Each structure stands twice: as structure tokens, then as C-alpha cells.
Amino acid sequence: MVEISTSILSVKEGSEAETFLKLEAGKTDYFHIDVMDGKFVEKNTYQKMLENASYIKRISNLPLDVHLMVEDIKTAVDDFLAVEPNIITFHLEACKTKDEVYKFINYIKENNCKVGISVKPDTKIEEIYEFLPYIHMCLIMTVEPGKGGQTLLTDMLEKINTVKKYIQEQNLDLDIEADGGINLKTAPDVKKAGANILVAGTAIIMANDFKIIIDELKN
């Protein structure tokens, strides 16, 4: 069975507390925190996500899955370490050199946090291979990062499948998370391709019963 990381991007303002508690009752595995800086991607959710993550930390014991879509990784890591996330994922494309990638991997780990690396749809999956032995999760963007409610790019399924095979061949132990356009229609193909953590936002938040849709996405 896969795990579900619910993106809180589309949670209505004013109904945060009620929604977060309903998501916990509905048995989401993680709260997915989409951190955008208005530079690496168009949208800016930085302050709102920091506030929401801090609030979730106070009312829930569920792990936080922080996805940084930012240019200034170091500052964002420092800001979000304060909410004690389970994992912080940064984008390969936001790093200028391989040394920088290793520096962030080590820095996050030194702060007792798991680390993930994300790749955009246009980035070749082979570019992440050398870092896989040192991280806990590879996040494949199945849409262009920066907006909620997009349609899944079906050619990303092959990318998931490729990295899954590589991980198995190298006998590595890490999660594959898929993020973007995941709903009841697309989830079976994403799971079949090899992802074991699915990020879903709109599909869950718009549902009448969170538990029913989370169960269906898992199974």
C-alpha cells in the first residue's frame, strides 16, 4: 500500500484548523507543505506555509513533508527546520553545482531531518542518480511546479518507472514520491510506475469525505 501526502495548498482561508483535523482523522500519512518563493516558481506561498506548518505542528502529530520550490535553499531550510519536519525536499534545479547539492543534503541530515531531492518534468532523471545513495526520497514532479490543480503529464510515468528500476538495480533504499495531478483516475498508473508516496491536494480537499478518498488513493 502507498502512503498519501496531502498538499495543503488549496485549503480555504479561515477553514485551516477544521481541514487539518479532518485530514488527520481521514488518515493522511503526511501534510505536504508546498513552499514557493515567487522566484523559482511564479507563486509565493512562503509565509502562509510557514504559518500553516507551525499551526499543524501545534495541533497534530502527523509528519510534515516540506517541499521547497525556492532559489534560496539555505534560508528556507533554516526557516522550516523550526517546525521539525519529517523531511525537507529541495529542487535539483535550484542548485548551481554538484558540491552545492551535497552541501544541502548534509546540512539537512545534520539537523536530524530526512532529505529529498525533487526534479522538474524537463530535467533528465539520470541527473539525480549520483545523489540517490545519500537521500531518503526522490520526488518526481508530474506537473510543472508552482500551481495546484494541474493535469498529470503522462510521460512522467516512464520517468518514475526508470528511477524505480535504477533504485532496485543498485539495491538502494529510498522512497519515490510523485507530485502533481494525482487523483482517483491517475493514481493507479502512478503506483504501477513505482511511486510509493502520492501527493494529492485538490482531489482530497475538494472531496466531501477525506477518509473515503484517501483510502481509495492508498488502495
Keywords:
single chain, 219 residues, alpha/beta, TIM Barrel, 8-stranded parallel barrel, 8 helices, 37% helix, 20% strand
State which percent range the strand residues make up.
15-25%
Biggest sheet statistics:
8 strands, parallel, barrel
- CATH H level: which superfamily? Aldolase class I
pLDDT < 50 stretches: none
The helix count comes to 8
Shape assignment: globular
CATH architecture: Alpha-Beta Barrel
Average pLDDT, to the nearest integer?
Answer: 96
User: What is the spatial order of strands in the main beta sheet?
Assistant: 1-2-3-4-5-6-7-8
- Head-to-tail CA distance between termini: 6 Å
SSE pattern? EHEHEHEHEEHEHEHH
**The level-1 CATH class:** Alpha Beta
Helix content: 25-40%
Radius of gyration: 16 Å
How many runs of DSSP E, i.e. beta strands? 8
Provide the domain count. 1
- Structure class: alpha/beta
Written overview of the protein:
The chain has 219 residues and is of the alpha/beta class. It has one domain: TIM Barrel, CATH 3.20.20.70. It contains eight helices and eight strands, in the order E-H-E-H-E-H-E-H-E-E-H-E-H-E-H-H. It has helices spanning 16-25, 46-59, 73-81, 98-110, 156-169, 187-193, 202-205, 210-218; strands spanning 3-7, 30-36, 64-69, 87-91, 114-119, 137-141, 175-179, 197-200. It has an eight-stranded parallel beta barrel, surrounded by six helices.
